Amino acid sequence: MSRELIQGFDPTRLQRIATHIDQQYLQPGKLPGCVTLIARRGELVWCQSQGLRDVERNLPMQRDTLFRIYSMTKPVTSVALMQLYEQGCFLLDDPVHKYIPAWQNLRVYKAGVHPNFLTTACQRPMTIRDLLSHQSGLTYGFMQRTNVDAAYRALKLDGGPGMTLERLVDELSRLPLEFSPGSAWNYSVATDVCGYLVQLLSGKPLDQYFAEHIFAPLGMQDSFFSVPTAKLPRFAACYQHQPGDSFSLQDDPQDSPFSRAGYLSGGGGLVSSVDDYWRFAQMLANGGSLDGQRIIGPKTLGFMRLNHLPDNSDLPSLALAGSFSETPYDGSGFGLGFSVKLDVARSQTIGSVGEYGWGGMASTNFFVDPAEDLLMVFMTQLIPSSSYPIRQQLRAMLYGALVD
């Protein structure tokens, strides 16, 4: 293999990524398959598809495979809402109840179990910035941590048959918050509420808004909430991690909820491909535009990439005990839709201050490093994302191959 550098990367050292994934994950049966893409200075550096997209049918992973990206939907929703911010539709310190009147009297959990909660008043109203930065006091049912998230599970608020953004917002109006807004950090359905606000402020369904204002301008032809029938053959199967480093089928692509019109979850409902998400990530890396299409202003994006936690705190100092994140806590803060690296040494993962990105429940991940003008998109389909440390290992190998 040639040792000529590709945008400052040594191709021989990059090949360690494919070897590592094959030897440590595919051959032992830990992962079904994956696609890894690295770009720098706007140019593709490396992209490799490995393993199978559908183990049961022995179908190979391909570069155009479609993946459930789950929480990698959140940055898309956050950009959509901030597009409307740029149009003067709201202010970040606006109380959420200005737009959702039923939320005027939200309260904070003190004791009890659903539906008999003892609550106390919020110290201040929830703002739109609280939603974007996960400081709202909302939660997720899958947390399995408190009596509040037990109520989310009972009401199936994380999604499922019959769920709509309108029903979510209505049900949440009657449930207590985990904490007073702005006083802690907790991963939550807040970005689904952001999706509701996009619909409310734009007057368009979320899927239509995404298609018109993000996907079409960026040429993202393989991103949607439900996979079109003609594209189902490219849709990957999704798997569940099992004890003993194996996996079982979790969602068959031929009978998947993602193949039918359903819940427009701004927090986790999109399907996409590695190249489509590269276009979205490259737009971010370029300061908000791609191929002459301006999606968001550079100052707005710069504002979103700041740490919005109080006193420049990192996640460990503000996150609720036992709460979940799609990024390692140490050395990371949170902006408006992304995690933000604050301290490289504390993070114990190579990178740069100011790096930002997020991941998804099925172990997908992306990040943008403005200091090095590079990005990575990693696609696979294994739930949960905490099954293996592959995302941190990929960073070590990626930066190990960057020599100029």
The CATH class of the largest domain is Alpha Beta
- The run of helices and strands is HEEEEHEEHHHHHEEEHEEHHEEHEEEEH
What does the largest sheet look like? 8 strands, antiparallel
Give the structural class.
Answer: alpha+beta
The number of helical segments is 12
How many DSSP E strands?
Answer: 17
Percent of residues in helical segments? Answer: 25-40%
Integer average pLDDT: 96
The name CATH uses for the topology of the largest domain is Beta-lactamase
| Residue fraction in strands | 15-25%
How many discrete structural domains?
Answer: 2
- Please identify, by name, the CATH architecture of the largest domain: 3-Layer(aba) Sandwich
